[in-house]
Target: Glucose-1-phosphate adenylyltransferase
Amino acid sequence: MTDKVLGVILGGGQGSRLSPLTQTRSKPAVPIAGKYRLVDIPISNCLNSGIHRMFVLTQFNSASLNKHIKNTYHFSHFSTAFVDILAAEQTVQNSGWFQGTADAVRQCMHHIVSHEFDYILILSGDQLYQMDFKDMIEKHIEANAEITIATIPVTAKDATDFGILKADDENMITSFIEKPKTGLEEWVSDTGEEMQSEGRNFLASMGIYVFNRDYLINILNENEEEKDFGKEILPRAITQSRVLSYQYEGYWTDIGNISSFFEANLGLTDELPKFNMFDSNHTIFTRARMLPPSKISGTTLEKTIIAEGCIIQASRVEHAVLGIRSRIGKETVITNAYIMGSDRYQTLEEIQTETDAGHSLIGIGDRCYINNAIIDKNCSIGNDVKINGGPHLEDGDFELYAVKDGIVVIKKGAVLPSGTVI
Model:
């Protein structure tokens, strides 16, 4: 796989549906599970599948993502492995931004083809899943396919949010429709007994593709007006080429909005989470930080994930994810929350200076109550602060926080004075 396959991870657009988490960073750079970034998921899946050469295509708010990749993915000097950033750039031939997924690959193709490979694996940078790409590529080769699309069975309710496919007895895709709103009964597929018993009768595209090298180069050169794989390139290719459906039945979620992001993170606290971070065959790689162990004093913990370097003195933490360097004060109660933590510790001198001035410290103060909330990185939340998210709150975007689907998102670096109530 190391010699045959090159991975390309798409950094995504503005990520407005995940705002305010994407106000200062791209979607793949958003912290997940307390210690990782979203981009670590596709990169780790590649590394676990023996694919060691990857490009990450970026455009919006890419500084944080660039820094993370630069500080994380280092390989031996005697290895051909790399994870390189390809940022949108002006050239003599093109002075514009990436206009879509296919256009992003097209604009970067002169960098990509300088490497030897037979197959190119195109991935999204904002999905949560664990997949063995070796099996997918082997099926692609066996079927003599020109394109393989990873598909996942979904219910009728979810089918309207995806591109839906139909395949023949050899799993060759025969037709495609983007986000169907009516006539769903015509798109029912034989997804297998187990999937059908769960009502998952429709094959949805996962946005994961394998292309033969020469085929991809040709199809991008022939149709320069086509900017997107899902909406333009693939529907036409299905009518002209051998396009294979690779059915995946494991856990997969598209981190498309605040609600799905929140559910995916809190789902990790389940007794048997659908996304298994403890599987040694699917290691999730990330930046190796030399942080101390977490310290917990007088806290009742229930269904909680705690990353490294935390100092926890809360009275109760339930159904929550606490990210790196989280600091939580005494008598504080946290439920249904993702606390992202911080990028640094304040020194004792800083703490004394800020306390004397009556300022909030980085972290969460004493006697706070936080429910149904995401606290972005480096927030300073004072004492006696109450944040109670839920359906009683209307959606809105404010200076220090936003509310989406009843979830309160405290913006990165926000300072909430003592006594604040949301």
Remarks:
- Residues 295-416 form a domain with the UDP N-Acetylglucosamine Acyltransferase; domain 1 fold (CATH 2.160.10.10).
- The mean pLDDT is 90.
- The radius of gyration is 23 Å.
- The chain is about 20% helix and 30% strand.
